[in-house]
């Protein structure tokens, strides 16, 4: 049986929060059939974001990325469901919004890479690392959802 308990970390960045897109983004994941198991809004510290984006530390845009990300609140989420990492990335769209398909979150709501609304885990391994970085185990709600079980999965 396919893994319907796969998890991904999705974060709405400051531009998405300030533009009032949180509800619209959550709605897309819920309507798709994914289960929200953790959610919090916070203004992350510089150190927290530097650790989150550690794989980009040698990129020339790293300092401006960190400065932007500490500029306002973010909404950190854990979504669960079949192939959520791959499908979550598809739902977000390409990193460069101009290369994102219409209908994707970035394709519909953003124009420039530096203000691309969301972050999504790119692999199950990075999802696990990011989830552990942003959430304590007790902050993740592993609950049964009869609706999702019966009407989303065979």
Salient structural properties:
8 helices, 4-stranded antiparallel sheet, alpha+beta, Alpha-Beta Plaits, 154 residues
Describe the structure.
This protein is an alpha+beta fold and 154 residues long. It has a single domain, classed as 2-Layer Sandwich (Alpha-Beta Plaits). Helices cover 40% and strands 16% of the residues. It has eight helices and four strands; from the N terminus they run βααβααβααβαα. It has helices at residues 14-18, 22-32, 46-52, 62-69, 84-92, 105-109, 124-134, 146-151, and strands at residues 7-12, 35-42, 74-80, 118-120. Strands 2-3-1-4 form a four-stranded antiparallel sheet. It is globular and about 45 Å long. The termini are close together. 32% of the residues are buried.
**Widest beta sheet: strand line-up:** 2-3-1-4
CATH class: Alpha Beta
> What does the main sheet amount to?
4 strands, antiparallel
Percentage of residues in DSSP E strands = 15-25%
CATH names the topology as Alpha-Beta Plaits
Q: Overall mean pLDDT score?
A: 95
What coarse outline follows from CA principal-axis ratios? globular
Radius of gyration: 15 Å
What is the correct CATH architecture? 2-Layer Sandwich
H/E order of the elements? Answer: EHHEHHEHHEHH
GO molecular function, one term: nucleoside diphosphate kinase activity
Protein name: Nucleoside diphosphate kinase
EC number: 2.7.4.6
Cofactor: Mg(2+)
């Amino acid at each position: 049986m396919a893994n319907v308990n796969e998890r991904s970390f999705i974060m709405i960045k400051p531009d998405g929060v300030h533009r009032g897109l949180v509800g619209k983004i959550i709605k897309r994941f819920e309507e798709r059939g994914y289960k929200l198991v953790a959610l919090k809004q916070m203004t992350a510290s510089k150190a927290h974001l530097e650790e989150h984006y550690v794989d980009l530390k040698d990129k020339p845009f790293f300092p401006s990325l960190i400065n932007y990300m500490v500029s306002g609140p973010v909404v950190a989420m854990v979504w669960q469901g079949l192939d959520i990492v791959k499908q979550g990335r598809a739902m977000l769209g390409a990193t460069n919004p101009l290369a994102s398909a219409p209908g994707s979150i970035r394709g519909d709501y953003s124009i420039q890479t530096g203000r691309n609304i969301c972050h999504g885990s790119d692999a199950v391994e990075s999802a696990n690392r990011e989830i552990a970085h942003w959430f304590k185990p007790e902050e993740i709600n592993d609950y049964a959802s009869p609706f999702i079980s019966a009407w989303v999965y065979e």
